[in-house]
Amino acid sequence: MREDDTTDGLHCLVTGATGYIGGRLVPELLEAGHRVRCLARSPGRLRDHPWAGRVETVRGDVTDPGSVAAAMRGVDVAYYLVHALGTGRAFEETDRRAARIFGEAARAAGVRRIVYLGGLTPAGVSETELSPHLRSRAEVGRILLASGVPTAVLRAAVVLGSGSASFEMLRHLTERLPVMVAPSWVRTRVQPIAVRDVLRYLAGCARLPREVHRTFDIGGPDVLTYHDMMLRYAAVAGLPRRVILPVPVLTPNLSSHWIGLVTPVPAGIARPLTESLRHEVVCHEHDIARYVPDPPGHPIGFDEAVRLALRRVREAEVATRWSSASVPGAPSDPLPTDPRWAGGTLYTDFRERDVDASPRALWRVVEGIGGENGWYSFPLAWAVRGWLDRLIGGVGLRRGRRDAQRLRVGDSLDFWRVEEIEPGRLLRLRAEMRLPGLAWLEMRVEPRPGGRARYRQRALFHPHGLLGHAYWWGVSPFHAVVFGGMARNIARAAARTADAPAPAVRGTGPPPGRGPAVHP
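^ NAD(P)-dependent oxidoreductase, sequence as received from the core. Prediction below:
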């Protein structure tokens, strides 16, 4: 493609398409007329996105030179939207190695531009004083700028949008705590930016002139403290004024655990967010507007960004969430399909019930499980298991659902993730709670004579070591109550709703009135 070609679409590679920003950037690039290739460790997790049929998806990992090199072939613009945060103490080295692999592969393939979304760093602060999160993001930017490929590094602070970790943290802290004792970082000034503007800048960078090779600060028009943001959120959401009492004793580590208890955002994700608030992070230039002009009303102000995000939450139109990306360290092995699996012991709890309802009514209950609807058995046991998971650093039960009625492969669902879904027939969940082994929960809907349905449920566990075997036998006495109660109550719920109007089975396109993916 000629360098002066500004009318034809470009060929864009997007890494991190299963994550919060990447999953929203893809439809923006398609809308702009570009061709998109997604690099993903688990391509199947992208198949249910509205745009899945319009992109090329390849399997690979940014730490694997071979798969990155193959993904770069024929690419004009490569988006680097991944990071190894939370994968362990060596995450900085993993980030460093992945960035080098990505830059070298882009240069070897003749890629015309790299675009990277990093974190806004405070001016005049030594990198040794930065949080590991910000320090690593800054280093990745430098590595990509040194790759020999024209690179645009966009640096953002707090990203506000439905489903973002920053927004969910702000929302739940403000809504749940009318009076709060808060860490001193609530007085630190930051410059938040609406996710719509982040996506607009990222997409616009695809057509930057070749000579543009630098970092850009991106932010909204408001510079606020976290204290200000909570008060303004309360006003926009129609809540009574909040009372916030900053104290110096809550360190970023302690406050991350506090956030993990109060909000759905686990401590492992809250920690880097709070550590980044130790220093003032505001933009010192807005040069990006010279190349990606701001239309009227942009950048979007804080109040409007909150209004847009709340509207999407209330209308269940959240395209991606902070939990879209896999939890670091969570198991990713697929369910063994052979019951005589050679990989070792596979414990199974099987339940089956004939249901006095149609398969359609039963499926509606199955696909609606979790989140606000709960798990149809012994709520206290599920709540305790969620709290225990939180206490040992897991995700707990409060991630909820992206959509109250519909699921897609890759969705997080409390402390599970959707591994497989066959609309009307099968829902398979893979556990992401902390366990001494791998666990799945599988629910099937089968037709039986007379238009009725049969419900089949399997809980499976592959133990790791002696502790795994001890765990299974330790909890097995409760299975009759937990799993037996679940099967019984799901059948009852389906029977109660059998006569209710049923929406169309998912998979035939968006419901009436719902257009393409939206991003506020």
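The longest strand covers residues 437-448.
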